[in-house]
Design goal:
Chain lengths: 263, 258
């Protein structure tokens, strides 16, 4: 785990240790997810005989993105079954946050062949897609080859991978899974950018109105739902994938709002 | 015969690797000339990349310092064009797929050929993906160098059969860096290459730091690649590393052809 993220995700680090994991902070490069992935790949080459490296997303060299996609696809299978059972029709829109894009591809997969279902991926715009502090890969990046895949990456004009930023450690990665790049290229899914501010507003909104504290990652998807819902018809169906819980984010969001609390 | 294959003719080849721009490009140019005059049969010029996943700490640090100092592809190309006025030793670039892809594969190949480069090594492009790159380099007469590692096993024959220039044999699992012991069955690896492509020279790299290791490996291999050990001298001695590197090069060159 990038050293920077071990601080931002201190609660998750504690939990992993509690469950018996050894967590090694990575200090090279920007000390975030990208560098943790690079260091893991370096370690993987040392012990390739007895180890597979499945990135925690739909990324990396083939066949790992396909494998992770297939494992995650249970999300859209269940959404489809449940929505059909309850409503007798397909949803009009499925919304998910996209860093590498595993929860999103899982939520999209069984709807790809249903063209009436709009698929919306929400990228982390950080402080805005016009700023340098963003992680919105499809919205701001370009085609590249890195970490074993060809996809969109945030990079400079010479092909060096750019430092990225988002309030959300889970979306703070300079690339996106290749299948999302493809869904974007063929126009099947739409990828929008949500800023830190919008995500934090949505985080607070869902907590207050529903008593559900969403992960700050998922709050990016909720933010788009809040934006787009008033423009839709009352009887249209929208599914938002709340991919994680937000306990881990409470201290960081409090800090974002200027309140210092001890975890 | 390509200039690269000629580098292996009737002798064991010493192949130094240099991180271009570490600590600056003037030093790199001095180092290339010094190595060319002191035993190098082929020189690998590393173009620094922001995220070099095949490298250990020494070359990672060299790369990031070189980038901070402004070692761009264009400036490295300028340096090579100056060097080629007097340096005749074959040279290949070693870098990562994204830099070449971003520059434009065909433009990169064309420019490399124009500069008098002889080949390219991209450690993050496996056999299955190499046809996206190799044809452009072939077109301009450059060798696209393939790598095998101890994990390649049954793929060794296939990779060797398509190899151009020389075959880069990775000595051990893991990333670049100096190692005290190399335990891989190098003879077995080289023998398997020979079965499928007897004409391709095998050079061993990753972990080689001293003349003894180099001599032992050259009992089976056609050459040795030494990178991290040289860059560590630069890290430890700065510009004064030049003399140390010349000494080490002469020793390695002498030991492998004993």
């Amino acid at each position: 785990m990038g050293e920077e993220d071990t601080k931002r995700q201190a609660l998750n680090v504690y939990r992993m240790k509690l469950l018996g994991a050894k967590v090694i902070p990575v200090t090279s490069g920007t000390a975030t997810l990208k560098d943790a992935v690079s260091e893991t790949m370096r370690e993987w080459t040392r012990r390739i005989d007895d180890t597979h490296y499945c990135l925690g997303s739909v990324m990396g060299p083939h066949p790992f993105p396909t494998m992770v996609r297939d494992f995650q696809a249970v999300i859209s299978r269940e959404i489809k079954d449940q929505v059909m059972e309850r409503e007798g029709r397909l949803p009009d829109m499925v919304i998910a946050c996209v860093g590498g894009g595993s929860n999103a591809i899982g939520a999209f997969y069984h709807f790809i062949d249903d063209p009436s279902v709009q698929l919306i991926g929400c990228e982390a715009a950080g402080r805005g897609i016009d700023s340098l502090e963003t992680a919105a890969t499809i919205n701001t990046g370009s085609l590249g080859i890195f970490h074993g895949m060809k996809s969109y990456f945030c990079q400079d004009q010479n092909g060096h991978i750019a430092p990225v930023y988002s309030i959300s450690a889970g979306l703070d990665y300079p690339g996106v899974g290749p299948e999302h790049a493809w869904l974007h290229d063929i126009g099947r899914a739409k990828y929008v950018a949500i800023t830190d501010d919008e995500a934090v507003d949505a985080f607070e909104y869902l907590s207050r109105t529903e008593g559900i504290i969403p992960a700050i990652e998922s709050a990016h998807a909720l933010a788009y739902a809040i934006k787009i819902a008033p423009k839709m018809d009352k009887d249209q169906l929208m599914v938002v994938n709340v991919s994680g819980r937000g306990d881990k984010d409470c201290a960081a969001i409090a800090r974002y709002r200027g309140e210092n609390i001890n975890e | 015969m390509s200039k690269i294959k000629e580098a292996f003719k009737n002798k064991k080849a010493f192949i130094p690797f240099i991180s271009c721009g570490y600590p600056d490009l003037d030093f790199t140019a001095d180092l290339v000339r010094a190595l060319a005059d002191n035993g190098a049969d082929l020189i690998e010029l590393g173009i620094p990349f922001s995220d070099p996943t095949a490298e250990g700490p020494i070359i990672m640090e060299a790369s990031s310092k070189a980038l901070a100092g402004g070692a761009t592809i264009d400036r490295i190309f300028d340096m090579v064009s100056q060097l080629r006025k007097d340096v005749r030793v074959p040279m290949v670039f070693m870098t990562y797929a994204n830099l070449v892809f971003s520059y434009g594969i065909d433009s990169f190949a064309k420019e490399s050929a124009k500069l008098g480069m002889d080949g390219l090594i991209l450690p993050d492009v496996p056999l299955e993906e190499k046809e996206e790159f190799a044809p452009s380099f072939r077109k301009y007469g450059l060798d696209f160098i393939s790598l095998i590692a101890p994990s390649s096993r049954d793929r060794i024959g296939l990779i060797a059969s398509q190899a151009e220039g020389f075959l880069y044999c990775v000595s051990s699992l893991g990333v670049t860096g100096t190692r005290d012991h190399i335990t891989t069955d190098i003879k077995g690896m080289v023998d398997r290459v020979g079965l499928s492509n007897p004409d391709i020279p095998c050079a061993i790299g990753f972990g080689i730091s001293n003349p003894d290791q180099a001599r032992q490996l050259c009992q089976y291999a056609d050459g040795v690649i030494v990178g991290s050990a040289l860059m560590k001298l630069v890290k430890d001695h700065g510009r004064a590393a030049l003399g140390h590197i010349i000494d080490l090069s002469r020793q390695i060159k002498a030991s492998i052809n004993e």
